[in-house]
Amino acid sequence: MLSIVKHFETQGTVCDIHPLGTGLINDTYKVETREPDAPDYVLQRINHAIFQDVDLLQGNIEAVTRHIRRKLEEKDEQDIDRKVLHFIPAEGGKTYWHDGKDYWRMMVFIPRAKTYDTVDARFSYYAGSAFGNFQAMLADLPDHLGETIPHFHNMEFRLAQLRQAVEADVCGRVHEVAGLLAELERRADKMCKAERLHREGLLPKRVCHCDTKVNNMMFDEDGTVLCVIDLDTVMPSYVFSDYGDFMRTAANTGKEDDTDLERVSFNMEIFRAFTRGYLESARGFLLPVETDNLPYAAELFAYMQCVRFLADYIGGDTYYKTAYAEHNLVRAKAQFKLLQSMEEHEAEMRAFIASCL
Ligand code: GN1
Ligand code: MG
Fold this sequence. Notes:
This protein is an alpha+beta fold. The protein folds into 2 domains: 2-108, 2-Layer Sandwich (Phosphorylase Kinase, domain 1), CATH 3.30.200.20; 121-356, Aminoglycoside 3'-phosphotransferase, Chain: A, domain 2 (Alpha-Beta Complex). It has 12 helices and 9 strands. The protein has helices at residues 2-5, 54-74, 121-137, 155-168, 178-191, 193-199, 240-250, 268-282, 288-292, 294-314, 327-344, 346-356, and strands spanning 14-19, 27-33, 41-46, 97-98, 103-108, 206-208, 217-219, 225-228, 235-237. Strand 2 (27-33) and strand 3 form a beta hairpin. Helix 8 (268-282) runs parallel beside helix 12. The protein is globular. The site of magnesium ion has 5 residues, from loops.
């Protein structure tokens, strides 16, 4: 790895490199430097099987970080280097390095920042306003962003993938999951509503983050949000993506891969706090069709993630990193339990959103 780092324009002498974070896709390392005035760095091996067009990927990320940096400068923000990611140029002038086999990139490590896998109501409120703000800052992005993963949050496409996996049944796992598959099919039509609204010209695509897991956000020591990280999936999507994925990850009383379904349920306190923050910063640009459908957005992302984990399980675990044989199945079941709990709270969600507006 040291030989990889040498191709980037970094400062200081590297004294340690160790794994960082819990992402399911890329491999991430922290690179520490000896000199106190040299920054530490984050080194990532980009999962090239998933992000096949690395040039488009980094082009998107550069456009987004450049735009946010300019916005922060215009607002005279302090501490800008901790509020937007800074990618390091590599030999050849790109922000990635291809070693013949793997693609690598480096960014400056943001000091004294924390990530969390679970957050309380106060942090959720900050997170809501940060993601609303992120979308608002990118509303006038001049560059056109490509889809780094084609059809990424397209529910019709994800269902088609699941059905193909079921049809092929390469591991003979379909019979074990017949009950869950039937529950998913029963909801399929309702869950494809966003695609229908878009085709009818009623629902716009905007620049979204598309991976608003709670641990993709950096918090300062006082709990305020510094910035949003993991920008690989920033692309045009429905605002439902960002609202829904945060609900799915932060407003779950259990874990994404909880083996005890009793622990999994929808946390209304987190829902309320995040929604309040999000609507405060995003209501200026949101259309009624977007705010009306936020309860659907929450359900959609638990549902979509269940479909994706289950398709990967049936297909032989080729996409997500897994720690044991049934891991994707456990994840799918936990997401389904979360969905059921959200469904029970649908009317309550609707009433709260109306009260915020
Ligand atoms: C992946 O890399 P990570 O862990 O932030 C995935 C998301 C899923 C998530 C499920 C590119 O995100 O879409 O929601 O796992 N990212 C990609 O935990 O597929
Ligand atoms: Mg991540």
